[in-house]
Amino acid sequence: MNIQMVDLYGQYQKIKDEIDLAMQEVIRTSVFVKGGKVNEFEENLKEYLDVNHVISCGNGTDALQIAMMALDLEEGDEIITTPFTFVATLEVLALLKLKPVLVDVDINTFNIRPELVNNRINHKTKALVPVHLFGQCADMESLSHISRENNLFIIEDACQALGTEYIFKNGLTAKAGTIGDIACNSFFPTKNLGAFGDGGALYTNNDDLASNMRSIANHGMSKRYYYQQIGMNSRLDAIQAAILDVKLKYLDQFIAARQAAATVYDQALSGIPGLIIPVRVSYSSHTFHQYTIQVPEKRDKLQSFLANKGIPSMIYYPRPLHLQEAYQYLGYRKGDFPVSEELSEQVLSLPMHTELTEEQLEYITSSIREFFS
Ligand SMILES: *Cc1c(COP(=O)(O)O)cnc(C)c1O
Question: Domain range spanning residue 213?
Fold first, then answer.
């Protein structure tokens, strides 16, 4: 049995004709950068998300950088996020000479704990960057409350949560990334909506931020060859936009396939002593960008046991960011974020994609049960 962490080719084969046609169409028109296809995709994604503006860009990391540049911050301004995330979240802050201020995550959700945010806020704090890790939203209602009281921006790192629904206490729902001031998304091939290369997008409901971000992503240009600010060259190319536009039509189906696989995992793996299945919160759907279990005692042994049976698994993330060499200058030490540190030693992400078969899931889950028996 050939089990992969992510089966991109299998997914492509099912929609090959449509994707090939869309790519050929771009080649025929030979508008490879910007142009109609990119606009069309932005429009369709805008509609899917129910948000006022979608601005495509080169990748998710650029999206985070463009968002931060659009806020008119000053060197040393403080931005609150967590150490249990992909490095990009922190990296762009460092590059822009902003000060990342870290707070720990919740042991059950892997997401930022709003209770810990309040005592890290001071006059230099300008923004919160919640990460909707593994496909489940952070507690946005609590964070929105904190941001309103302290006049802070919220930049959602929604790179792993395209399609996730946030559920407000009053029962209304909104797509992940449409709740804060700006959201950043990535179309890296393995993300919920993956390109055949790099891609990214920003979303916002704020007209001024939208036009500012559009300008920043295009060299800070106002009108052609007139530059009002220092910008970047960050754009989604038309072939990627064409591919993404086809795949967007299937996004809800893709998500349903991930959720179905997660349900099989949940049922087969619940109740095993020494293994904790992902916790689902009441305020968010879960699109399972990753299906991440916790194995407090023998995670590494389980991983090699599975590898010997041809079952891949991944550790997201093996070392929290405050303990990474590049970020020692922030002055954090081991013990500062005990939950993130503990998680890095016990998380294990199982194969998760849109093409998992019942047979494969049965093989994976029975192998895990065998390990614990
Ligand atoms: C993937 C990812 C990014 C960066 O996206 P790229 O397109 O790879 O630059 C940022 N933050 C999180 C949480 C991610 O998962």
Answer: 8-102+112-248
